[in-house]
Amino acid sequence: MISNYPNLFTPLDLGFTELKNRVLMGSMHTGLEDNLEEYDRLADYFAERVRGDGPGLIITGGISPNKSGGISPNSGTLDIVDNVHYHKKITQAVHKENGKICMQILHTGRYGYHNDIVSASAIKAPINKYVPRELNETEIQQEIRDFVNCAVLAKDANYDGVEIMASEGYFINQFLSLRTNKRQDEWGGCFENRMRLAIEIVKRTREAVGDHFIIVFRLSLMDLVEEGCPWVEIAQLAKAVESVGVNIFNSGIGWHEARIPTIVTSVPAAAFTRATRKLKEEVSIPIIATNRINNPETAEEILRQNHSDMVSMARPFLADPHWVQKARDNRADEINTCIACNQACLDQIFSGETMSCLVNPRAARESELIYTQTNTPKNIAVIGAGPAGLTVSTVAAQRGHQVTLFEASDDIGGQFRMAQRIPGKSDFKETMRYYRKMMERYGVELRLNADISSDQVKEMVDGEQYDEVVVSTGVLPRSIDIPMSASGINHPGVLTYPEVLLKRKKVGKRVAIIGSGGIGFDVATFLLGQEEEVDLDKWYRQWGIDPAFEAPGALIEPEIESPKRQITLLQRKATKSGKSLGKTTGWAHKLHLEKNDVRMLIDVIYDRMDEQGLHVRVSGEPEVLEVDNIIICAGQISNDSAFASLDKEILSSLHVIGGASIASELDAKRAILQGAELAARL
Ligand code: NAP
Ligand code: SF4
After folding, report:
1. Mutate to test the pocket of ligand 2, among 25, 318, 432, 585 (most ligand atoms within 8 A of CB)
2. Among candidates 395, 367, 373, 372, which has minimal Cα distance to 382?
3. From 346, 370, 387, 404, which residue has the greatest number of CB atoms within 10 Å?
């Protein structure tokens, strides 16, 4: 078969070994690394991703070389021989499937979330409450020995190599940058001194592991923080570590404390590959591009344009473990695309949970949530084609059931139909493309414009045609109870969020949004607008990224544009606006609105609406918001019209999932998970 992606599937020769394709499954902390008893599960997780035609190389989640380098007190550490056999479970599983895997050595330095953290200087990170201790000369030498020891143990565990993590603002990066290294000795001051730690680690690791062992160096191509390294230093470091034994450069974009988004949905596809292109002029070994690459077309284009020699994807392999196989078979339309939401991966990790994936709840639960072929095929009716209904339908059909999916509107998607209209969330369309393809592949019969009444539900339950009836009718926007004058809530200026996002009702220049949850933020983003096709140069200017990457940290003054609308976002609670947004993405959404002068009012009492506008009290102080439109984004209630009036017996034989079951704090993560778990049981 002629490949649609010839560059992606060209092997990469490293001299002593060959990678079968140009795809790297980048490092992603799953949470399983931190418990040696979970290494069987971790082995299953990697094996699933490398089975068939998997990525040319995998990098594990970060493993620290000593206790103080861990992200938490119980982080996975490889510092003693006793732990080697646990790691062998992983390497055996991957090698059995003909894959290659490197272990990432991650020392978090001042980003560690515990008392015993160390760094170049005793400077607290703005995103951490713990203050690091400054290492002395003897301790620095011990740190280097710990890195080397860790690499040697990784080799004993049969890893194909290691990745030395020197980006994202971690330990090695903290020595490199003047922001965090204020030392006066031979490890600080001039760049030759600041890069000494990185060079010593690579040099001594190479000496210890020999030539036939891959060393990947994850280099920070742009720090995106003040006092970050300028390009001249980055290039100098790259040349220096190449000369002492690195085989491949992986790239890192931005420190964790940077206030420029680098991985969230709104970051344009392949936004940073111009920097890997620039590095190619400085070094001669392969370079890997990373960040916001999630489909084979983008990956192929990066390679075709010679912006890098390989592409790295981490989250896309959670979303679809068979990404490479599908691309290889020219079945890209079957890929379950990562939508960069972070909701089930990074947000869960930062909440201390094991990660999974919003669009693929089997991620990291490969041995628990299993879609076996059924021996007793059933006829299943599913009512409602939002994320919950689509998931239960496609997974049940994949298992061999006969599924009919009824949808009241003229298209599938439910709340996703609105989400995909938000600037920066167009990847949500890919999830719909995936569901459409799965329905076609597994023969789900879709009936659109089929608004099922409670009588029809009763008939479905009582009749012979269906063995199981699933109700996934989703949610309706909550109407609110704000006193009004004669014109009041029926005033044409009052709109619900579906009227704005789906029906595209006209909205004026001055807007008040009632409700500051995820939807309120989304509607504000929608009203600020953005072109369909994002201009990368403009995006760089807006966020203050130097397009030449020369400036320290690649930072320049951001360009300020006058906002398209005057927006006020309101909530009754006195807690910070945006508190309910995703842990790792909320700050970027909020910063975007702040840059556009959106007023965020908290502790608000809604007094009334009239022709003048919205009358409120903010922390007790009366104010009139003179606006053209008031948009209600006050949460949802379950859409239960198809079943609320049914008697208990009928109700007990229905499967009610997603927003139809509980609307509060509903998100697609819960809806899809419920759909998948139900489908696995049916
Ligand atoms: P939500 O997060 O529950 O927010 C509802 C908002 O409406 C709150 O600000 C609430 O604040 C206000 N509200 C509730 N009842 C009200 C009432 N009777 N009168 C006036 N205001 C009222 O719901 P959502 O924004 O519709 O989002 C739904 C789900 O989708 C959530 O789970 C959300 O996390 C998820 N989502 C997330 C994102 C994202 O993270 N980017 C985007 C979209 C959706 P007060 O009660 O303080 O007034
Ligand atoms: Fe991608 Fe969201 Fe899944 Fe994370 S949870 S892998 S960001 S789709």
Report:
1. 318
2. 395
3. 387
Q: Residue of the nearest CA to atom 43 in ligand 1?
A: 518
pLDDT for 334 equals 97
**Ligand in closest contact with the CA of 313:** 2
Residue extents of the structural domains in the chain? 12-340, 379-476+639-681, 479-529+564-634
- CATH architecture for segment(s) 479-529+564-634: 3-Layer(bba) Sandwich (3.50)
Rounded to whole angstroms, the Cα distance separating 390 from 449 reads 16
Kindly report, residue by residue over 380-391, the tens digit of the pLDDT.
Answer: 999 999 999 999
Distance CA 427, CA 652 (A): 37
In short, whether 338's Cβ falls inside 6 Å of ligand 2 is: yes
Q: Check residue 23 and give its pLDDT.
A: 98
List all residues 6 or more positions away from 199 whose beta carbon is below 8 Å from its beta carbon: 240, 241, 244
Residues marked as catalytic: 170
- When pLDDT is averaged across residues 606-634 and rounded to a whole number, the result is 91
What tens digit of pLDDT does each residue of 445-471 get?
999 999 999 999 999 988 889 999 999
User: Closest ligand 1 atom to the C-alpha of 582?
Assistant: 40
Residue 89 has pLDDT above 60, yes or no: yes
**CATH topology classification for 379-476+639-681:** Rossmann fold (3.40.50)
CA 398 to centroid of chain Cα atoms: 26
pLDDT tens digits for 647-681?
A: 888 889 999 999 998 887 668 999 999 999 999 99
| CATH of the domain spanning 12-340 | 3.20.20.70
Separation of alpha carbons 38 and 368, rounded Å:
13
**CA separation, residue 294 to residues 260, 314, 398, 573 (Å):** 20, 9, 24, 38
With a cut of 50, say whether residue 364 has pLDDT above it: yes
Read off the pTM: 0.91
**Helical axes 196-209 vs 231-243, angle rounded to 10°:** 20
Contacts 24+ apart (CB under 8 A), 613-619: 613/512, 614/512, 614/514, 616/570, 619/574
Ligand 1 neighbours by CB, cut-off 6 Å: 478, 480, 514-522, 571-573, 580-582, 589, 633-636, 665-667
Integer Cα distance of 393 and 415 in angstroms: 17
